[in-house]
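Bug #77: duplicate submission created two jobs. Keeping one. Sequence:
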Amino acid sequence: MENLALIDSFSEFKDDKLIDRVTLMAILEDVFRNALKKKFGSDENFDIIINPDKGDMEIWRRRVIVADEDLDLENEEITLTEARKIEPDFEIGEEVSEEVKLIDLGRRAILALRQNLISKIHEHDNTNLYKQFKDLIGEIYTAEVHHVRPRVVILVDDEGNEIVLPKEKQIPSDFFRKGDNVRGIIENVELKGNKPQIIMSRTSEKFLEKLFEQEIPEVFDGLITVKNVVRIPGEKAKVAVDSYDDRIDPVGACVGMKGSRIHGIVRELGNENIDVINYTNNIQLFITRALSPAKVSSIKLNEDQKRAEVYLKLEEVSKAIGRGGHNIKLAGLLTGYELDVIREGNIAEEEDDVELTEFSDEIEGWVIEEFAKIGLDTAKSVLKQDVADLVRRTDLEEETILDVMRILKEEFEG
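Kept job's structure:
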């Protein structure tokens, strides 16, 4: 039977696409009904019988017998003369069921059937894939590098699904080769036409939070809660943690002996510097902890404007601001307050000091900006620093720093 042969040829899609036979048969019925509508104008008087075990199917058309001269609706009616060719004792008003062979639909219709089936199966696969990865949004996922492009890395998982890791979702120090295993979170699933595009991220705060869940048993078990995570990917992160069990030190449990627990997370994130902080509802104390390693003298809050004036001794200012301004920026994001640094120092000494911007004729603007990023914006604040320490904390060469210090010393010696 040609119906059976056609079903068998269609079944190759089941093997290729890992689609179960029952689903395939349901798709087949839908495809055939569409073909019948095109051929006969309606499929309402057709019965499609599918046997998913045998992979066989039959199509039967039901028509009412009318007198030869009363034929009006060819798809729904059959003349008495035509009916009696099928069964000699048929009478007007009875219903005739007649099998429709696929060959009756025509060669072009059969080719269209096949194309429509392929389309429907792809649509089914894409719908399932979309649902599968929608449920995985926010979860860690591992896939293998298949292709590295300038703006994107294409990954493939164990089931052959393609995952996209855009450049902006990669940590700046990330470097991938074909065959590497990559971990990130599924950040989004977008439909591009009918095909789902799965987006992975390694820069998301959620990725760091999920790494804490994976690597620290107390977080996984719910004994420690990650309250907030803020990051400058590849540079620095701050994680606020809390525990409802007073016997557990949340920071100590997360960091581990000599940093043993957090080391794997730091390595995964390209040596991102991670500060783990004890969460508290006391906002002044929380800001103080968030600005670590700087020691805060006092804080003046404006809760309406979500601003805080943070008073620091001169030698603590650069620690609070951090390299590139990262420490104070992340502390503000973590606490939800805009932080203004107020220096505490010797007033007479400050009056005698000179703003670095006053030296713009002799020192290039970008060099002055590098010092400002770590909280050094006066001549004396720079001169108090150790040269090796400045090389480590800025993007300046030792020669440039020594040259700046010479210019600044001349100002006070002259």
